[in-house]
TrEMBL record:
<feature type="domain" description="Lactate racemase C-terminal">
    <location>
        <begin position="272"/>
        <end position="423"/>
    </location>
</feature>
<protein>
    <submittedName>
        <fullName>Nickel-dependent lactate racemase</fullName>
    </submittedName>
</protein>
<dbReference type="InterPro" id="IPR048068">
    <property type="entry name" value="LarA-like"/>
</dbReference>
<dbReference type="InterPro" id="IPR018657">
    <property type="entry name" value="LarA-like_N"/>
</dbReference>
<dbReference type="InterPro" id="IPR043166">
    <property type="entry name" value="LarA-like_C"/>
</dbReference>
<dbReference type="GO" id="GO:0050043">
    <property type="term" value="F:lactate racemase activity"/>
</dbReference>
<feature type="domain" description="LarA-like N-terminal">
    <location>
        <begin position="8"/>
        <end position="213"/>
    </location>
</feature>
<dbReference type="InterPro" id="IPR047926">
    <property type="entry name" value="Ni_dep_LarA"/>
</dbReference>
<dbReference type="InterPro" id="IPR048520">
    <property type="entry name" value="LarA_C"/>
</dbReference>
<dbReference type="Pfam" id="PF09861">
    <property type="entry name" value="Lar_N"/>
</dbReference>
<dbReference type="Pfam" id="PF21113">
    <property type="entry name" value="LarA_C"/>
</dbReference>
Length: 425
């Protein structure tokens, strides 16, 4: 018997798999990677050796309005490490620079003052100018052109009118943009609701290139990079992080060239080949990423890439906050025919995209491929509303999975952290 301690909320759940039935374990090397320098040293070194641009301190010289786009409370970016070094670099040649930190919420709710303090530390919150982006604040938006796909590029005025636009962030696998970081600081980060919804349209989500770890041919990435260039995103500092959210790699410079180097490092540590199996166990990496069902779709897509058609995905996600989105929940509760649901999505024009449609579309896609048994703290009715089978322990989940697969020679693939791997089909 092979034992696995799998992340679940702030703790773990134990899974026991008979070795004869274990097809493989798909695991990222990121969490065990030992960097040769501290996070602060890595960031400083990246700032001193940018890729494709001059040093930021030289670029900042003489600039009047400098805007630093920063990730929001939903992303585990170690801004308390990055931001002080980034601000010091800007002020090295421009000590009186007018700097605004623009928090890139995308379509998320506004970041609270307490969350800002937790993210940056009190010194930055008390002494720096911080503005939280609001995608619906039309008075502070400006149109700057068209996306390659035809959508309007409408961005936060602060970003669009900056003399020098900089962004900090992190690079991780992303389940339809390929990777987070880089160009995503602009779109969706500081874009209007209209622009984000257009970019996340059903045709793009359905494109086979809009997948984890895929950039070539990805229409969502193409629009995002174009928007970043149109906004004149001059410089980025991005990190790759471990399970403790500490930087283990850092890149700085051009928003595309630096990002390419960062994602090449990431791929070298977390890309794994699919191991097809009848049953695939996955997680969302535990807290804070498994707080709701909506976010848990990300960890399920790793399992989707390796589960056999008609197989079973066992998803471990405590989801103490429930569904994570009213429209997401209601979409599945009110429509039991997944094929009809999917066709409804595909029939919508890009400008008709509705809130959370992209997440619902991806979730429906994987539900059409496999049965999902959901191990969580959620009410059974809520799990059923989302077309999944509830379970409250690994033992219960495995028994249900085996009865569904209904074969003696079933095979199991385990993915301890579904959001940290790129599963290559």
């Amino acid at each position: 018997m092979k034992e696995f301690l799998l992340p679940y909320g702030k703790g773990t759940l134990k899974a026991e798999i008979e070795e004869d039935h274990l097809a493989g374990v798909l695991q990222s090397e990121l969490h065990s990677y030992q960097a040769s320098e501290s996070g602060a040293e890595l960031v400083q070194d990246a700032l001193e050796h940018p890729i494709g641009t001059p040093r930021l301190c030289d670029m900042a010289e003489g600039k009047k309005k400098i805007v630093v786009i920063s990730s929001d409370h939903t992303r585990p970016v170690p801004s308390h490490i990055i931001m002080p070094l980034l601000l010091a670099e800007i002020r090295k040649e421009n000590p009186d620079a007018d700097i605004t930190i623009l928090v890139s919420t995308g379509l998320h709710r506004g970041t609270t003052k307490d969350e800002l303090r937790s993210k940056y530390g009190s010194d930055i919150v008390d002494h720096e100018k911080i503005i939280v982006h609001d995608c619906d604040d039309k008075d502070n938006m400006v149109y700057i052109g068209k996306l390659p796909s035809g959508g309007n590029i409408i961005l936060n005025r602060l970003a669009a009118e900056a003399d020098l636009l900089v962004a900090e962030g992190f690079i991780e696998p992303h389940f339809f943009a390929g990777f987070s970081g880089g160009r995503k600081s602009v779109l969706p980060g500081v874009a209007s609701r209209e622009t984000v919804m257009y970019n996340h349209n059903s045709g793009f989500i359905a494109d086979p290139h809009a997948r984890t770890g895929v950039i070539e041919g990805n229409p969502i990435h193409k629009d995002m990079l174009y928007a970043a260039r149109a906004a004149r995103l001059d410089f980025i500092i991005n990190v790759v992080i471990d399970s403790k959210h500490d930087p283990i790699y850092a890149v700085a410079g051009d928003c595309d060239l630096a990002h390419i180097q960062g994602r090449e490092f990431l791929v070298s540590k977390c890309q794994v080949d699919a191991v097809p199996a009848d049953i695939v166990i996955s997680t969302n990496g535990g807290y804070p990423l498994d707080q709701n069902m909506y976010q848990s779709v990300k960890g399920m897509t790793a399992a989707e890439a390796t589960v056999k058609k008609g197989g079973v995905i066992i998803m471990l996600s405590k989801a103490e906050d429930g569904d994570g989105g009213k429209s997401f929940h209601e979409t599945f509760r009110d429509e039991r025919d997944l094929n009809r649901m999917m066709q409804t999505f595909l029939d919508r024009k890009p400008e008709e995209t509705i809130v959370d449609q992209w997440q619902s579309q991806i979730f429906a896609r994987l539900l059409l491929k496999a049965t999902v048994i959901y191990v969580s703290s959620c009410d059974d009715q809520l799990v059923d509303d989302l077309h999944m089978i509830p379970a409250h322990s690994m033992e219960e989940a495995m028994e249900k999975a085996k009865s569904i697969v209904s074969k003696d020679d079933y095979q199991v693939t385990v993915i301890p952290d579904g959001v940290s791997v790129i599963v290559k089909e």
